[in-house]
Amino acid sequence: MGLVVHKYGGSSVADAASVRRVAQRIVETVKNGDDVAVVVSAMGDTTDELIDLAEQVSPNPPARELDMLLTAGERISMAVLAMAIADLGYQARSYTGSQAGFITTAAHGSAKIIDVTPGRITEAIADGAIPIVAGFQGVSQDTKDVTTLGRGGSDTTAVALAAALNADRCEIYTDVDGIFSADPRIAPKARKVPVITYEEMLELAANGAKVLHLRCVEYARRSGMPLRVRSSFSDSLGTLVTSSYELEGVAVEAPIISGVAHDLAEAKITIGGVRDEPGRAAAVFELLADAEVNLDMIVQNVSAAGLTDITFTLPMSHGDIALAVLRENKGNIGFETLAYDDKVAKVSLVGAAMRSHPGVSATTFRALADAGINVEMISTSEIRISVVTRAEDATRAVQAIHTAFGLDADGEAVVYAGTGR
Ligand code: ADP
Ligand code: ASP
Ligand code: MG
Question: How many whole angstroms from 362 Cα to the centroid of ligand 3?
Answer without folding.
Answer: 33
